[in-house]
Design goal:
213 residues, mainly alpha, elongated, HTH_TetR
């Protein structure tokens, strides 16, 4: 068990080092030597777990996706309503982008590898499916206006958040990500939320986690 624990710790160390390289340099700019420097492991340790840079990149994407889905499960377990869960899931994604190198690298790699090496669609599909289910529950609970299509709303939210965080990253290094997210909800919620839910949801949408700059 001790050997397995050490192996798991080393693998995660390599993933974090790779994430820091991919986050800063992208897939094309990152090198195995740079990943080794960020990971502080031997070349043998790296190759024991990953056979190539491409294998490392896909592992980072997989780990990022797992982290995001786990965070969504925690939100679903604590949120008091489906619409509250939708708003809090978006805020948690913003928090992860600001605090987790693996998440930032995974998001960048999903776009880069999806453009050049075939689709990296699982994260988008799973997030959309999660939001479709939540929106359908919100409709049944009377929290969404009856005219809102749950699938269309889910697709719009995933696309909007993806574009919003990219623009935020380009213009401010994501320093204004919470503000942009609050703006999105302030514009969207009045047109989709049931009137008796609106003030509470806008309050949640304006909250932000304390994140060190």
């Amino acid at each position: 068990m001790a050997v397995q624990a050490r192996a798991a710790a080393t693998r995660h160390q390599v993933l974090e080092g790779a994430a820091r390289s991919f986050e800063k340099l992208g897939y094309g700019g990152a090198s195995l030597s740079g990943i080794l420097a960020h990971s502080h492991v031997t070349k043998g340790a790296l190759y024991f777990h990953f056979e190539s840079k491409e294998a490392l990149a896909w592992a980072v994407i997989k780990e990022q996706h797992a982290m995001s889905m786990l965070a969504a499960q925690r939100v679903l377990a604590t949120a008091q309503s489906p619409m509250e869960a939708i708003v809090l899931c978006a805020r948690e994604m913003a928090r992860q982008l600001l605090t987790e190198p693996i998440v930032r690298a995974g998001v960048r790699l999903t776009l880069e590898l999806g453009n050049s090496r075939g689709p990296a669609t699982d994260p988008y599909i799973d997030w959309t499916d999660t939001l479709v289910a939540l929106a359908a529950k919100a409709t049944a609970a009377g929290e969404l206006r009856a005219t809102v299509d749950p699938a269309a709303l889910a697709r719009f939210l995933v696309s909007s958040f993806t574009g919003m965080q990219l623009v935020s990253e380009a213009l401010s290094g994501r320093a204004d990500l919470y503000e942009r997210l609050a703006d999105m909800w302030a514009l969207l919620l009045p047109s989709i939320a049931a009137p008796d839910m609106l003030s509470r949801l806008l309050e949640f949408a304006s909250l932000r986690d304390d994140v060190a700059s």
